């Protein structure tokens, strides 16, 4: 079913919208959550929370890309859940690895991130990503947005795992330099 | 900023960039994976073909240099042990030159002489 038809159901407050959303984007949202949480039950709950959040947000919102919209919500909810679950002790899994890698580009000091600061970092991040070659950008987003493993990225992009590693290393260094230049570190 | 904060900031990535990344993720044609095994096999076949060509060239070259046959006596076997003297026909290869050259003709004459001459061992 087309996204516009599903969105029309949301606007008509038809509960069928949730069923159609699940049919079309259920596995995608589950995949996004699972790569962060690495737990079946937690991932399923994050997906259900995503549907609830979408139900509350649409209307008034009418996302242009429903899949991206849902994926973003799932990601944020999964991060919140991961944070609650691990509290101050770090769990294993892909996210821990991803966070360790990202620590290469930043100081690592805990800072009370204000909304303004967060927005500035997000804007800078988008500028940085736009300037990045498409292939490096895709690898970076697969790893740090979708939290895919390097093997999965290799299967999806056709690049070798060594190629992915070197692309990520290059991009992390460049991101660190960029954020430093922008005075955000 | 912590790595977690940076990771969370990725949630704010532009929709267009995510769509582009998602598209590439479903159409994996960016760069073909190198096929080292395939290339290795091709290289191996090429080397074997070259070796074969070299061997053929040597054999053909030696055959061209064969000027005739002569009967010789063999005193040792292939392992180098002394055996009863045995007559054996052997190929004569002229390393002196190719067919038709002066050296080639001289070698032929020498071969004729050897074949026609009966050693008298000093007796007339």
What secondary-structure arrangement, pairings included, does this model have?
The complex is a heterodimer of chains A (185) and B (124).
Chain A: H1 3-11, H2 16-37, H3 40-57, H4 66-86, H5 94-102, H6 115-131, H7 134-144, H8 150-157, H9 161-181
Helix pairs in contact in A: 1-2, 2-3, 2-4, 3-4, 7-9
Chain B: H1 3-9, H2 15-26, H3 36-64, E1 66-76, E2 82-93, H4 102-116
Antiparallel strand pairs in B: 1-2
Give a verbal description of the structure.
With about 180 residues, chain A is mostly helical. Chain A is built from nine helices and no strands. With about 120 residues, chain B is α+β, with helices and mostly antiparallel strands. Chain B has a two-stranded antiparallel sheet with strand order 1-2. Chain B is rod-shaped, with a radius of gyration of 37 Å. About 5% of the residues of chain B have low confidence. The interface between A and B is large, with 52 and 31 residues.
């Amino acid at each position: 079913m087309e996204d516009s038809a599903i969105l029309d159901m949301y606007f008509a407050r038809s509960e069928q919208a949730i069923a159609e959303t699940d049919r079309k984007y259920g596995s995608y949202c589950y995949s996004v959550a699972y790569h962060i949480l690495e737990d079946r039950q937690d991932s399923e709950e994050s997906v259900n929370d995503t549907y609830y959040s979408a139900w509350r947000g649409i209307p008034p919102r009418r996302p242009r890309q429903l899949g991206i919209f849902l994926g973003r919500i799932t990601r944020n909810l999964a991060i919140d859940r991961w944070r609650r679950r691990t509290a101050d002790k770090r769990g294993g899994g892909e996210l821990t690895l991803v966070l360790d890698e990202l620590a290469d580009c930043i100081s690592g000091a805990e800072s009370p991130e204000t909304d303004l600061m967060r927005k500035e970092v997000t804007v800078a991040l988008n500028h940085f990503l736009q300037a990045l070659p498409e292939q490096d950008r895709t690898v970076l987003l697969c790893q740090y947005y979708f939290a895919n493993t390097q093997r999965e990225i290799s299967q999806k992009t056709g690049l070798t795992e060594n190629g992915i590693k070197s692309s990520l290393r290059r991009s992390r260094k460049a991101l660190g330099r960029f954020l430093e230049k922008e005075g955000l570190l | 900023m912590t790595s977690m904060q940076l990771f969370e900031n990725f949630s704010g990535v532009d929709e267009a960039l995510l769509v582009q990344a998602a598209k590439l993720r479903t159409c994996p044609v960016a760069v073909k994976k190198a096929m080292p095994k395939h290339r290795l096999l091709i290289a191996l076949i090429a080397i074997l073909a070259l070796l074969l060509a070299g061997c053929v060239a040597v054999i053909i070259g030696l055959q061209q240099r064969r000027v005739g046959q002569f009967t010789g006596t063999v005193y040792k076997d292939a392992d180098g042990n002394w055996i009863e003297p045995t007559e054996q026909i052997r190929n004569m290869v002229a390393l002196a030159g190719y067919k038709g050259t002066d050296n080639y003709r001289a070698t032929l004459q020498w071969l004729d002489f050897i074949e026609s001459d009966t050693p008298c061992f000093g007796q007339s």
